[in-house]
Specification:
The chain has 160 residues and is an all-alpha fold. Helix content is 89%, strand content 0%. It contains 4 helices and no strands. Helix 1 runs antiparallel to helix 2 and helix 1 crosses helix 4.
C-alpha cells in the first residue's frame, strides 16, 4: 500500500511540474502576440486620429470658402442698395422695393445653411477626434503595462 501511495504522489508532483512548465511556456509565448496586438491597436488609433484631422482640415477650408462667398453676396447686396439710394432715386417706393428685394433674397441664400452645416460638421469632427485621442491614450497606457522587455526581445527569443 505504501508503494502505490508514493507512486501516486510522484505522478501528481510530476503532473503539477509539467502543468506549471507548460503554463509558463504558453504565457511567455503569448507576450509577443499581446505586444504586437497592442502595438497594432495603437497604430490603428493614431490612423483614426489622422483621418479625422484631415476631415477637420477639409471642413475648415469649406467653411472659410462658404463664409467668404456669403460675405461677398452680402456686400454686393448692400452696395446695390447704397447705389440705388445715392443715385437720386431715393423715393420711398424705390427704397421699399429694394429693401423688399433684399429681404426676399436673404432667405434663399444657401450659404447660410451651408455655414451652419459646416459648423455642425466641425463640432462633430472635433468630438470624434477627442474620442479617438482618448482611445489612443488608453491603448498606449495598456501597452505601457507590459513588462519593460520590448517586443523585439521576445521575437528574437522565438527566432523570428
Amino acid at each position: 500500500m505504501k508503494k502505490t501511495s508514493s507512486y501516486k504522489v510522484v505522478l501528481i508532483v510530476i503532473g503539477i511540474i509539467i502543468a506549471v512548465t507548460l503554463g509558463t511556456v504558453f504565457m511567455f509565448n503569448s507576450f509577443p502576440n499581446k505586444a504586437i496586438a497592442l502595438d497594432e491597436k495603437v497604430q490603428s488609433a493614431m490612423s483614426d486620429i489622422k483621418v479625422q484631422e484631415k476631415a477637420r482640415y477639409d471642413t475648415v477650408y469649406n467653411l472659410a470658402d462658404c463664409v467668404k462667398n456669403y460675405d461677398k453676396h452680402e456686400a454686393e447686396t448692400l452696395e446695390n442698395l447704397a447705389e440705388s439710394m445715392s443715385a437720386g432715386k431715393s423715393t420711398v417706393e424705390d427704397v421699399q422695393t429694394v429693401l423688399s428685394a433684399v429681404t426676399y433674397s436673404y432667405p434663399e441664400l444657401k450659404s447660410d445653411g451651408n455655414y451652419q452645416k459646416f459648423m455642425d460638421t466641425l463640432t462633430l469632427t472635433e468630438r470624434t477626434i477627442a474620442e479617438y485621442r482618448e482611445t489612443y491614450n488608453k491603448h498606449v497606457d495598456l501597452q505601457d503595462i507590459l513588462p519593460e522587455i520590448s517586443t523585439e526581445v521576445y521575437l528574437v527569443y522565438d527566432g523570428l
